[in-house]
Amino acid sequence: MKIAILSRDSGLYSTSRLVEAAENRGHEVHVIDYLRCYMNITSHNPQVMYQGQALEGFDAVVPRIGAPYTFYGTAVVRQFEMAGAFCANESQAIARSRDKLRCLQLLARKGIGIPVSAAADSTRDIEGLIKIVGGAPMVIKLVEGTQGIGVVLAETDKAAESVIQAFRGLSANILVQEFIAESKGSDIRCFVVGGKVVASMRRQGPPGEFRSNLHRGGHAEKARLSPEERATAVRAAKTMGLNICGVDLLRSNHGPVVMEVNSSPGLEGIEGATGVDVASKIMEFLERKAAKGDNRDRIGV
Predict the structure, then answer these.
(1) What is the pTM of this model?
(2) Could you read off the pLDDT tens digit of each residue along the chain, which spans 301 residues?
């Protein structure tokens, strides 16, 4: 197959591992900086242009779209879809998962476990937000945040009120969520490929840190999932319409709850912690599905 990997940096661990896995399986692979792509938006002849040439003949596209570049990155993915290429994750699914509020609303609609969450636009409704999540301690996070950035633990109602007012004063969209104290600063990253959990790891934050992101100094180890956790991760991926994703779970007293669904999960942490060749699992999925060319998004919202 001829495979395009949409990535800003060919030297990133995840990108280089995907290239290695593709080449080991005999595929032709190209790393393309999606921000350098430009598009010929013409009826009946959509094209993606790169360095003066039309990108044509690709059997599969693997989007690795960074969160700050979601708008243009998904537009490039959409253009590949219009040209008939099979995209490992579709543009609509990527955009859907990047909006944390939209993501939680869809998960809730399907009855998937999530932390008690609240959202509002006006600072006059702060008291109502705090009441919904059961009071302090509570987590306040930016809707557009990533890698633990823009996530604050408010240990008193007054502190929560100050943080919410500060974020809304900057016109930042926020979510307020219950704090799952029993998780003790850890979470479970489930790596889902083609409707199956292929690897899972437990991430633990450093002492005194409630965020478990590896970018924040946490460490990871292989995790053994319960049947309920495995089913929750698969259902969350399906709800978002994502073929490849990382589903982050917390182990709460009332079962697993989904914190986030990541459409461009990194490979370094999960492969290092579990020893699973996740990159090859992704290539196996492409080999099974790309020939069918089924790019219809079935979520509808």
Answers:
(1) 0.89
(2) 999 999 999 999 999 999 999 999 999 999 999 999 999 998 888 899 999 999 999 999 999 999 999 999 999 999 999 999 999 999 999 999 998 899 999 999 999 999 999 998 888 888 999 999 999 999 998 887 565 577 889 999 999 999 999 988 888 888 999 999 888 888 999 999 999 999 999 998 766 555 555 555 577 899 999 999 999 999 999 999 999 999 999 999 989 999 999 999 999 999 999 999 999 999 999 999 987 656 666 665 5
Three-state DSSP at 198 gives: strand
Nearest in space to 285 (alpha carbons), one of 93, 25, 88, 4: 88
The whole-angstrom separation of Cα 48 and Cα 50 is 7
Cα 51-58-268 angle, rounded to 5 deg: 85
The structure tokens listed for 46 are 């959509």
Q: Are 201 and 221 in contact (CB under 8 A)?
A: yes
Q: What angle do CA 115, 116, 118 make, to 5 degrees?
A: 120
DSSP label of 8: S
**What are residue 198's phi and psi, to 5 degrees?**
-95, -20
Domains and CATH numbers, the chain: 2-94 (3.40.50.20), 117-179 (3.30.1490.20), 183-289 (3.30.470.20)
The three-state secondary structure class of 140 is: strand
Query: Which two structure tokens, joined as six digits, stand for 269?
Result: 């942490």
What is the spatial distance between Cα 97 and Cα 258, in angstroms, rounded to a whole number?
A: 12
